[in-house]
TrEMBL record:
Entry superkingdom: Bacteria
Entry protein name: YrzI family small protein
Pfam families: Bac_small_YrzI
InterPro entries: YrzI
Length: 46
């Protein structure tokens, strides 16, 4: 009888965001919110 056992160790580390990445993420969130607000206002207008 053969017993094969595999052990995996997974480590998750939080990435440190650079200043450039943080600015890009902030810009993307702002654009997303503006577009969402526009879609809501157009939807209510109809």
């Amino acid at each position: 009888m053969t017993l094969n056992i595999f052990f995996f160790s997974i480590t998750i580390k939080k990435r440190q965001a650079s200043l450039v990445d943080a600015v890009q993420n902030e810009l993307a969130e702002n654009l997303y919110e503006r577009n969402r607000d526009r879609q809501i206002s157009v939807h209510h207008f109809m």
